[in-house]
Amino acid sequence: MQFANIQEARDFLDQHPEVRSFELILIDANGVPRGKLLHRDELLAIYENGRPLPSSILALTIRGEDVEDTGLVWEVADADCWTYPLPGSLTLQSWRATPTGQLQVSMHPTQGLPASPADPRHVLVRAIDRLKADGYHPVMAVELEFYLLDKNRDANGQPQPAVQMNGVRPAAPQVYGVYELEQLQPFLDDLYAACEVQGLPVRTAISEYAPGQLELTLEHRFDALQAVDEGVRYKRLVKGVANKHGLQACFMAKPFGDLAGSGLHMHVSLADAEGNNLYASEDPYGTPLLRHSIGGMMASLLDSLAIFCPNANSFRRFQANSYAPLAKSWGVNNRTVSFRVPGGPAKSRHIEHRICGADANPYLAAAAILAGIHRGIREQLDPGEAITGNGYAQAKEFLPTDWLTALRALASSEWAKEALGEDFLKVFLAIKQEEYRQFMGEVGEQDWRWYLTHA
């Protein structure tokens, strides 16, 4: 675990005398940024001595409630745990009305105890280090789909797409529509500008398969940890820029029952120490290493499904003919499968992992993907025949479509304990099991609409 040098903070303060406050963020198990708003005068001390945060900050549900069964609340007296800034994370939040800085911290491996094993970024570092020890350098890119919504609900109290520049609220998908992107120009201009300020490699903008749904691609990075760090910071940025425009950026996996879900697509390949792509092949089906990697991700898919799909809503995304995968399947240039090998030149050969919802924690998703790849390589696992044509029609081994089954599979997985860390898994499962109990204990509008009269 590498932390930032204090000179980074000194240079930033010299270059930005206008900045009076800083948002300090730590990413929790749900991928939610938690932290504090700090005064300018506090910045140097954080880089020199770290910043204590309570152990319970990594023991929270997605609603921000303590989970006692994590062992990080009363058992440890909600102890202070030391965090330190990450290199390159000190930047500007250009969307703020008042000049504000931003820095991301992570738990120190020893000074951060007892909370440090629960830090999701540590889980990814562990997976990357294990691959590198065997001579494989993971290369990754993060793609996140999201909905741009109006902050005001419709007459029925439901979320609705944002009104565009032309005064129209979109109602049709208009997938790949360029006119739709033009109507969002003020938002997109600010988004690209904010990404440039933060050094985030955002490229193509796409109107996705639903009204108000967008995807902006991030470039791949030879340093997989950097790629995921950038994905996490990009998500924070999108929400901030949307808020500036009076909008809400929604990363729920399935915010609307009759519209497309939003995914987190992870692109991955393996390189040697010099950066040569070890998946590169003139054969579109890739090298044996690529196929073993897919075999490993398939073999560990059920065990890690609760990482890829961490919430009750995540499983509403799994519907046939929806561009969301339903089975253990792979193919070449095929968007109906779970593991897609995109077309393109030999040197660009890689795998697109299409399982995750946009609500997944990118650190944990990447860690489970890389651990699965490592398993496939070590065990020389065969993924079977690639799917040609409609993967939905040819599916044989379907994924479970409910939260509880996925949580039970993760809890009983010896592979997950070894790959992700038993201490981390204890905390994560405690959080998710508490969320499951709360979610299933809540009676709401759907229950009344279905059962109030006739049950």
Automatic annotation (TrEMBL):
Which UniProt keywords are listed? Ligase, Magnesium
**Entry cofactors:** Mg(2+)
Q: Which Gene3D superfamilies match?
A: Glutamine synthetase/guanido kinase, catalytic domain
Family annotation (PROSITE patterns): GLNA_ATP, GS_CATALYTIC
GS catalytic domain mapped to chain residues: 120-455
Q: Give the UniProt family note.
A: Belongs to the glutamine synthetase family.
Q: What is this protein called?
A: Glutamine synthetase
- Organism equals Metapseudomonas boanensis
